[in-house]
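Protocol step 4 of 5: obtain the predicted structure for the target chain.
Materials: sequence only (see below). No template structures provided, no constraints applied. The aim of this step is simply to have a reference model before the mutagenesis design in step 5. Sequence pasted as it appears in the construct record:
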Amino acid sequence: MTGTASSLAMKRVYFLLSVLALWIMAFVMVWQGETNLPPLKIAVRYTILALYANLGFAYVWWSSDTHIKKERLTIWIWLALAGVLLSFLPPVFSGDMMYYLMRGRILGIYGKTPYAHTPSEFPNDMWRPYDIWPNQTDAYGPLSVYMQTAPVVVFGNAIVWTVWAYKIILLGLVALSVVYFWKLAEEFVPEGGMRLWVLYAYSPFVIVNAFIDGHNDIGLMALSVPSVYYLLKRKYGRAFLFWTLAFSVKYMVLLILPFYLITMMKQEKMSLMSLAASVWKYAFLAAGILFLLFWPIWGGIQTFVPILKTTAWFYTSSIPYAFQQGLKLAGIDMHWRAVQYLFLSGYAALYAWLIWHCFRKGSNPRELFRCLALAYAGFYISLISPLAAWYWLWAFPWIVLAQWPRTTLLVVLYSFTSLLAFFKRINYLSVIAASTYISVLFYDRFKKPAVQRI
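Step 4 output (structure tokens):
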């Protein structure tokens, strides 16, 4: 083994050991008697911060190696094996997975649709105490319902194995996305594609949300990657198939659908009329799949009630709330509804600009990645309901592939702002991260002229 290869291998091994070290969280939580999600005890919180600092260092150290272009896809199997072991961990930062699996039991054990029945109707179920939303029906797509039901059907009342099996489903989806991200990076990123692949495939952000907390947002993210790959390869049937599957996990993938249509139109040099005439078969495909998935578990209008309820929320973790607090410090009192309309108007303007920009440069893969990233990022900024850290998974592949300046710094700030949301509110962390990134860009912008003057 050459010196270059051994150095790269050493960094990879250190990273994988840092991933496995996340198991220490479980031991410290048991030792401290921690039962809250996310952890509140000081010893647990600072242990997690230390583990994150080490993992972040390992991630940057390895991905920044000048010889990272020699990395191979097959090596990812070692992270997959680490994921298999981490999947035995209980959730640490969020109880959402217990929410999923309790509703999986409603379907798998009791034969009721979780779109019309709530956990409070099954007070004696062994999983009921772990669900913190007992009066809410399922808020996610039908594929998500089946994903959370399968482990319950297979393992019944075995809690540890049910949790593990659900995370293994997510592991399979992550593996699928890793393969297609490799293809995207190899075929559509002229330089530095392998570094981008490592930043995505070995991301601590993905690792924690898939193998520890088990968020179904992983499904939306993972299925979107092959969808965009096939879109750029002009294989539209497969592109819309994967998009439909992503939608059937979580509906917010709807935000990027217009960019698919524009890209298709630009790649095929079609008029709007030609696009309308061509897209009907893909619409029929999506409608057919969704009908088959929804039909056995349809709950009528109740199917979408949990989503509609969020319109009256104004949460302290949202960016608009942070903005309102900033105004108060400046002596300006703005009603939360006015703040909401201001941010929604801003997002509408951004979205309109992104559509126009994509229409101008829709055949450019990098510009498409940037449009997808900003469509999601603008949504996060304008959201008044809880800005959950795991929502950031939706944009993550496109943040990495967008190739904005200082990509590694951007990806690290983006990832760890989300991961550290258990420690401080994500809206304020987001402001700090954005300020840091913009400051570095300004420094880069003015550093060269200053050096030249000297």
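Step 4 remarks: Residues 1-70 form one domain. The first helix runs from residue 3 to 20.
Proceed to step 5.
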